Amino acid sequence: MYSTFLIALREGLEAALIIGILVAYLVRSNQRKALPALWAGVSIAIVASLTFGAFLSFTSTNLSDSGEKLFAGTTSLVAVILVTYMVFWMKRIARGLKNELQSKLDYAMPLGKIALISASFFAVAREGLETALFIFSNFKTISTDSSPVVGLVLGLAAAVGLGVAIYKQSVKINLSKFFTITGIALIIIAGGVLSYAVHEFQEFGALPGEDSYVWNWVNADPTITTLLSGTIGISTKISWLQLIVWAIYLTVTLRAYLAPKKVLVSNA
C-alpha cells in the first residue's frame, strides 16, 4: 500500500501540474476556446494509460509459467530504467518545465485542434504510461491483497486534490523539496522492483544463484512481509545476486541523484 500510494501521488501530481500549467496558460492568454481540445488530449492520454495497464495485466495472466516469469522480469527491468530516467529528467528540467510546455502550446495552437490535442496528449501520456508500467511491476513485488489497490486510489486522489489546490493557489508547497524527497523514495522502490526482476530472471533460468539465499524467513510474520515489500520492495526471501544488484543500484543511483549540481565559473 505504501509504495503504490507514493508512486500514484508522485506521478499523479506531476501529471496534475502539467495539466494545470497548460490550462492556466490558455486561460491567461484568452484561449479558452482551445480548452476542449486540451481536455480531449488529456482524456485520450488517461484512457491510453489505463488500456496499457490492462494490457499488461491481461498478457501476464495468459502466459505460460516460464513465459510469465520472463515477461514480469522484462517489464520490471524496463520500468526501473524508465522511472530512473524520469526522476533524473524531472530534476534537470523542473525549473524550465513551464516554459517548455507553453512553447509547445504556442507551436500547436496555430496548427489547429488536432495539433493541440496531440500536444496535450503527449505531455500527459508520458507520465501516464510510465506510471502504468511502474505500478504494474510494483504490484508484482508486494502483497496480493487489496491494500496496493487502496494505496493506488488514495495516492491518485491526493494527487488530484493537491493539483487542484495548487492551481487555485489555495495551498503552496515547496515543489523542489517535494520532488526531491519523492524522487529518493521512487529510487528506493525501483530498487525493490529491480530485485524482483532479478528473481524472475533467476526462476526463468537466465541468471544463476536462485537458491543461494542471503536469508529465507520461511515462517515470516505476514505483517513484516507486507511492510518490507510495501516500502522498499525487499522480500523475506532474497538471493545473494538480488541483494548485490539492489545494493549497487541504490548506491550508484542515489549518489548521482543527490550530487550537487556543478556550477560553471567563468574566468572572464
Question: How many domains would you count in the coordinates?
Answer: 1
Number of helices: 9
Reading the helices and strands in chain order gives: HHHHHHHEHEH
Distance from N terminus to C terminus (CA atoms, Å) equals 54 Å
**What sort of overall outline do the alpha carbons produce when their principal axes are compared?**
elongated
Rg (CA only): 20 Å
Q: What's the average pLDDT?
A: 83
How would you classify the helix and strand content by structural class?
A: mainly alpha
Strand count, sense and closure of the main sheet?
A: 2 strands, antiparallel
Q: How much of the polypeptide forms β-strand, as a percent range?
A: under 5%
Q: How helical, in percent, are the residues?
A: over 70%
Describe this structure in words.
Belongs to the oxidase-dependent Fe transporter (OFeT) (TC 9.A.10.1) family. Keywords: Membrane, Transmembrane, Transmembrane helix. The chain contains nine helices and two strands. It is elongated, with a radius of gyration of 20 Å. The longest helix is centred in the last third of the chain and has 30 residues, at about 175-205. The protein has a two-stranded antiparallel ribbon with strand order 1-2. About 75% of the residues lie in helices and about 5% in strands. Helix 4 (about 95-110) packs across helix 5, helix 5 (about 115-140) packs across helix 7 and helix 7 (about 175-205) packs antiparallel against helix 9 (about 240-260). The chain has one domain (about 1-260). The chain is mostly helical and about 270 residues long. It has helices spanning about 1-30, 35-60, 65-95, 95-110, 115-140, 145-165, 175-205, 220-230, 240-260, and strands at about 215, 235-240.
